[in-house]
């Protein structure tokens, strides 16, 4: 990859140590940590600030991730406002069984929708720490990432001018559909993929939660999930065929299926309300190895995607970003390249741990609706073992709550 010949309308190159592509949790965390260490950087984002602060995404944060952000001064509002979850409930075969993972592990989850975290992080970066962030950029391109002086160019739609940022490192944090993950040559990186063969209809209801905890409904008609988002809003999921059209799910059909799949004696009736979001998420995963090429380092969904089955995606993105930010600071401040050399391997150990757990949990949730009597029987046995064996429960709880970290 070579730097293109300057074209008419290209502004003089700017210089900055780090260019961060993408203003999601990963990119903004890297940017904030760099700013706190007096390392200059520029964040490029194709969407508007209003859009990223409202984009619906995940909401479960593992305790280690929150503590790590808190130590960096990035979680004050989160800790003050986010509800704490300590258990969840399985519903299956007409039974309700609570799983008290905090009682088992001593750790808990925070429920804090990603748009709120992004709002906090972008406010801290741009408004408090004075970070340079450029929204609404177009045609982002990477150049010479395999050399010592990479650059990133983009089009400013307001002026029609192309800007070039010459840097030392590029942090690729622009997600599954971003440009940075495509910059890794095929001969350099491998991409491992897995398709679960099902979809989840993601629903956002303007209705109060119908349980004080997450509910996982394991049903022959398909998985159903209930997750509180706020006192007025509830996230629901319904297992549907992969590639299904949300238009096939009018409100009446949605609520009928939710009532059926989450039914259990003694359970509170579901509180219905307007469904303000319906989208089908195909359940698939991928992992890119290695997560670096030259001076380009990927973080979050740009490097790996884990289906939302075990609520691991945002936590993995934060883990990557903490490692990457510290590694960049060590190199730029002290010439210590050990963190950058070990970055990909350190990230991928956790990535594969979380992928394996997600796949295990997927079979537990989807086996009974697979149409395969063997898979259904094995999944039921797996669930009853988790609920009946202290040893199995302990292992499951530790994986569900996530691994600790020194960051």
UniProtKB/TrEMBL annotation:
Q: Where are the transmembrane segments?
A: none
Q: Which residues form the FAD-binding domain?
A: 15-357
Query: Which Pfam families does the annotation name?
Result: FAD_binding_3
Q: Which SUPFAM superfamilies match?
A: FAD-linked reductases, C-terminal domain, FAD/NAD(P)-binding domain
**Keywords tagged on the record:** FAD, Flavoprotein
Q: Does the keyword Iron-sulfur apply?
A: no
User: What name appears for this protein in its UniProt entry?
Assistant: 4-hydroxybenzoate 3-monooxygenase
């Amino acid at each position: 990859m070579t730097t293109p010949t300057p074209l008419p309308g290209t502004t003089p190159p700017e210089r900055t140590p780090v260019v961060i592509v993408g203003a999601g949790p990963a990119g903004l965390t890297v940017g904030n940590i760099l700013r706190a260490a007096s390392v200059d950087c520029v964040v490029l984002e194709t969407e508007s600030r209003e859009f990223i602060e409202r984009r619906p995404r995940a909401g479960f944060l593992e305790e280690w991730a929150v503590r790590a952000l808190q130590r960096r001064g990035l979680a004050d509002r989160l800790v003050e406002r986010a509800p704490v979850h300590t258990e969840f409930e399985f519903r299956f075969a007409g039974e309700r069984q609570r799983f008290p993972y905090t009682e088992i592990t001593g750790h808990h989850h925070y429920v804090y929708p990603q748009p709120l975290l992004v709002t906090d992080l972008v406010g801290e970066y741009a408004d408090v720490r004075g970070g340079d962030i450029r929204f609404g950029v177009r045609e982002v391109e990477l150049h010479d990432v395999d050399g010592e002086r990479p650059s990133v160019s983009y089009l400013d739609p307001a002026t029609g001018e192309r800007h070039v940022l010459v840097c030392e490192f590029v942090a690729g944090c622009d997600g599954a559909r971003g440009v940075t993950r495509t910059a890794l040559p095929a001969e350099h990186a491998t991409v491992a993929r897995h398709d679960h063969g099902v979809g989840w209809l993601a629903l956002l209801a303007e209705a109060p939660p119908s349980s004080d905890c997450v509910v996982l409904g394991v049903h022959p008609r398909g998985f159903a999930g209930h997750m509180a988002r706020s006192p007025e809003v509830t996230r629901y999921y319904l297992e549907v065929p992969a590639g299904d059209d949300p238009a096939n799910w009018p409100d009446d059909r949605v609520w009928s299926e939710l009532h059926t799949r989450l039914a259990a004696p003694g359970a509170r009736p579901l509180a219905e309300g307007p469904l303000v979001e319906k989208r089908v998420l195909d359940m698939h995963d991928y992992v890119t190895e290695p997560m670096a090429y030259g001076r380009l380092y990927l973080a979050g969904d740009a490097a790996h995607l884990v289906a939302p089955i075990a609520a691991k995606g945002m936590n993995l993105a934060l883990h990557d970003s903490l490692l990457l930010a510290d590694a960049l600071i060590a190199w730029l401040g002290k010439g210590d390249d050990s963190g950058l050399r070990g970055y990909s391997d350190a990230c991928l150990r956790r990535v594969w741990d979380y992928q394996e757990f997600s796949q295990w949990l997927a079979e537990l949730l989807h086996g009974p609706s697979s149409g395969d009597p063997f898979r259904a029987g094995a999944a039921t046995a797996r669930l009853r073992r988790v609920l009946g064996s202290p040893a199995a429960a302990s292992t499951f709880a530790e994986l569900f709550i996530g691994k600790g970290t020194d960051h």
